[in-house]
Design goal:
Elements (H helix, E strand, L loop, with lengths): L2 H11 L5 H12 L5 H11 L35 E11 L2 E10 L4 E8 L6 H14 L7 E5 L8 H4 L7 E5 L9 H16 L9 H14 L11 H7 L3
Parallel strand pairs: 1-4, 4-5
Antiparallel strand pairs: 1-2, 2-3
Helix pairs in contact: 1-2, 1-3, 2-3
Length: 241
């Protein structure tokens, strides 16, 4: 199969992405190397373009409970030092879902997630938090930062009371400033684009399992531009973690 046909095949599987990502994904999956300029020319000849949609996200501002430590320009040089969290919402066949994500800012690895089909379900935050706390045990001695927006659950006593015991310091975005958590906002948009364009979630049956499969794909099989087109897992292993 020639290069153009391969690119067409991979783009059919992952239509939300353009030539740079497809080039990296082919290298990861097949070992085929091509330059960026060559991949661009092939995709242009084949009419391959990203079909991703950008989702706008907006939350009302609330009073700040914790300072924004990310604005201080903290140095992140290893896993689990700074985790960012947010909730994103989407519909499948008119059924509403909320997905809460905990992501390592060092390598964009999703370390915990929780899903609910109930609007305003605080347990997606709490269940994800417990999985995140288990994750921190892999890195004893690390001073952890957990950053989020100023949502009511993130600011609640129930959410925060366990964190000091795990050496976790809280950080929050400024009120009404989603750009303070820009990495998480960007990932939320890509996730929803890929879930519907690439993973073809069209039925409410088995959504939770499909989300689990996507998270595994995201961590282990999805090249990331910010990581020089390594997957989060590859990036972590590259540095011996």
């Amino acid at each position: 199969m020639d290069t153009i046909e391969l690119l067409k095949e991979w783009h059919k599987k992952y239509p939300s992405h353009g030539y740079r990502w497809l080039r990296a994904k082919l290298l990861l999956d097949t070992g085929l190397f091509m330059s960026e300029s060559y991949a661009y020319k092939c995709c242009r000849l084949a009419g391959i373009k990203s079909v991703s949609k950008h989702y706008k996200y907006k939350k009302p501002g609330e009073s700040r409970t914790y300072p924004n430590l990310l604005l201080a320009g903290i140095n992140i040089d290893g896993p689990s030092q700074c985790i960012v969290s947010d909730m994103t919402a989407f519909y499948v066949k008119n059924t509403y879902y909320e997905l809460t994500i905990y992501m390592d800012l060092w390598n964009n690895e999703i370390v915990a997630h929780a899903l609910s089909s109930r609007r305003g379900d605080r347990m997606t935050y709490i269940n994800g938090l417990h999985d995140y706390l288990e994750f921190t045990k892999k890195f004893p001695g690390v001073k952890h930062i957990l950053h989020s927006d100023q949502g009511s659950v993130y600011a609640s006593k129930d959410f925060n009371q366990l964190l000091p015991a795990y050496n976790i310091t809280r950080s929050m975005s400024r009120a009404g400033t989603p750009t303070d958590n820009a990495a998480m906002e960007s990932i939320n948009g890509w996730m929803k684009a890929e879930l519907f364009s690439d993973f073809h979630i069209t039925s409410t049956e088995g959504v939770a399992g499909q989300i689990d499969e996507y998270v595994k794909f995201f961590n282990e099989e999805r090249p990331a531009y910010a990581l020089e087109y390594l997957t989060p897992k590859q990036y972590r292993e590259k540095y011996g973690f």
